[in-house]
Structure to design on (124 residues):
């Protein structure tokens, strides 16, 4: 069993996502999500639960995409919940995640909106 680094800040999740995705580690990516997390992916659908999220990322990562770390927008924190987001480098849309502090102090994704755009290609 692989041991993964736990995100100690909401911002750590994006860095760890990029590292694990580029390594093809779908289980490691899924470990960044709560057991009952939801991801708005593939487009037009919702993937629910860590096991389904791992299967979805395994399929995505099997195509060998390369992710680059994007400069995050300021994180909004309210108690044990935080909203993290990044604007894609191409400027078309945005990415947003709701993360929650776990009892051990680490953070995991609860809701993930990997990308959303308006019909004209702008951020929604």
């Amino acid at each position: 069993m692989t041991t993964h680094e736990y995100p100690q800040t909401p911002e750590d999740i994006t860095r760890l996502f990029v590292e694990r995705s580029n390594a093809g580690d779908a289980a490691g990516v899924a470990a960044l999500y709560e057991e009952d997390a939801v991801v708005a992916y593939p487009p037009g659908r919702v993937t629910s639960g860590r096991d389904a999220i791992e299967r979805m990322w395994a399929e995505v990562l099997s195509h060998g995409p390369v992710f680059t770390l994007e400069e995050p927008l300021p994180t909004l924190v309210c108690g044990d919940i935080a909203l993290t987001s990044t604007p894609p480098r191409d400027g078309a849309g945005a990415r947003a995640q709701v993360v929650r502090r776990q009892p051990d102090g680490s953070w995991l994704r609860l809701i993930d909106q990997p990308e959303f755009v308006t019909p004209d290609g702008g951020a929604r």
Remarks:
- Residues 118-124 have pLDDT under 50 and may be disordered.
- The chain has one domain: 10-61+72-116.
